Amino acid sequence: MRSYQLAWRVLRVDRRTQVSTTLTAFGVAVATGLVLLLVSLPFATHARAERTLWQNPRLSAGYDGANGGENVPGATVSVATSEDEVDGRRIIRVDVAPLVDASKVELPAGIDRLPAPGEMLQSPELAALAANRPAAEVADRFGARPVGLLGDDALMFPEQLVALVGHAADTMPVNAMKLPRMVSGTAEVDPLLSLLAGVGVVVLLVPSLVLVASASRLTAARRERRLAALRLAGATPAQVTAMVAAETGLAAVAGAVIGVAASPVLHALATWVPWGGGTWYADDFGLPWYTLVVIAVAVPVLVVGAAVLGLRRVVNTPLMAVGGHTRKPLSPARLAIVPLAIALFFWTLTSTNLSGSMLPVLVSLAILMWSPTIVGPWVTSALGGVFTKVWRRPSVLLAGRRLRDDPRAAYRASAGVVLAVFAGSMALTLMPSLESQSGYASAYRDSVLYMGTDPEQAPDIVSSVDDRLARYGLAERAASVGSLSLKQGSQYLPGYVVSCADAQVLLPVDVSCGSKPAIYAPSSSPLDTVSYEGANSTEKTSPLPGEPVVSSGLGMVLVDPALLPADTELSGVDIAVPASDGSREKARTALLAASGGAQVISKEMMLGNQDTQLADLRRVTVIGLVTASVLGGLSAAIATAGSVMDRRRTFGALMAAGTPVRTLSRALRTEAALPALVATVGAGALGTAVGIGLFGLVSKSVAVISPWLAAPVVLGALVALLAASVCTPALKRVRAEPLADE
Question: Which residue numbers delimit the ABC3 transporter permease C-terminal domain (predicted)?
Answer without folding.
Answer: 201-318, 625-737
